[in-house]
Amino acid sequence: MYFCLSEKFFFNFALSCQKKSVPLRLEISKNKVLFNYQKMATKIRLQRFGRKGYAFYQVVIADSRAPRDGKFIERIGSYNPNTNPATINLKFDRALYWLQTGAQPTDTARMILSREGVCLKKHLLDGVKKGAFDEAAAEEKFEAWLKEKQQSLQKVKDSEREKRRSTAKALLEAEKEVNKAKAEVLAKKRAEIAAAQEAERKAKAEEAKAKEEEEKAQLEEAKAAIEAKVAEETKAEEAPAAPAPVEEATAEEAPVEAAPVAEEAPVAEAPAEVPVVEEVAVEAPAAVEEAAAPVKEEVNEVIATAEAPVDAPAEEIK
Questions:
Q1: How many whole angstroms separate alpha carbon 101 and alpha carbon 1?
Q2: Using alpha carbons only, what angle is made at residue 89 by residues 123 and 158, rounded to the nearest 5 degrees?
Q3: Secondary structure class of 69 (helix, strand, coil)
């Protein structure tokens, strides 16, 4: 592979290479210089990508004079150090080709190539060229190393997976403990609320009961007052029966008419039916007054009839 360069660029480039002691392979043809970049200062290095705090890299073949993230010749893989173990995708054949061509890897690139077995493969091929062993033995050694390397990487992956699993389990247990503590606090609050509601309900029930008893006592007092009032009214109605001695005195003056008066006098016993009125009065005071009105009228009529015959004989005697 060759690049066609102008004379001006060639002399400038040759001067810089002379200062750095870089070997060059040049061919001059018709005022032009053909430059073989296989012998130039080619590097296997990394280009940075990603964001801050999460960087990943591309493995590239580039001129050592190019900036880190600038132009490159070929991209041969990628490297992500954010995983455990680090994730490496590499074009094995192209990496081996560039390493055999003379490209110089950086420290990190050398670590990547060594992990993937590129350096070991180059070493074994050099041994085959020198006649130390044949190509089959070299391939067998490389396969044994590759198998062992894969097993060690698998162990690292398994341990990392187990570590993540144990961490997740510990987090789950811690979360369960927190949830349990929260549930206990919530149950305690609910019990307190239920106890407060029960106490309030009991207080309301006792208050209602006391109010009911107070109303009952007031009703009993009102009932007793009504009964006393009815009794007083009954006594007041029975009071007119006192003039009976006057009737006896009149009877002594007129013995002839005393017998009829004595026969008619028992009619004054009609007020004996008043207790029936009392029972009604206890149940309904308004009804007692209505029922007592006719009785009062009858009592007054009886008293009037009882007094009338006494006066008549007195007039006759006179």
A1: 12
A2: 95
A3: coil
Q: What are the pLDDT digits (tens) for 273-284?
A: 444 444 444 444
Given a contact cutoff of 8 angstroms between Cβ atoms, the answer to whether 2 and 36 are in contact is yes
Condensed to tens digits (0 to 9), the pLDDT of residues 32-44 reads 444 444 445 899 9
Q: Cα separation of 118 and 126, whole Å?
A: 12
Cα–Cα distance for residue pair 104/113, rounded to 1 Å: 11
Name the burial class of residue 149, with classes exposed (0-12), middle (13-18) and buried (19+) by CB atoms within 10 angstroms of its CB: middle
Distances in whole angstroms, Cα of residue 117 to Cα of each of 93, 122, 148, 154, 235: 11, 9, 11, 16, 133
Amino acid occupying residue 147: K
Would strands 104-105 and 42-51 be described as parallel, antiparallel, or unpaired?
parallel
Between 135-238 and 118-130, two packed helices, what is the crossing angle to 10 degrees?
Answer: 170
CB 59 within 8 A of CB 78: yes
Residue 308 CA to residue 240 CA, distance in Å, equals 15
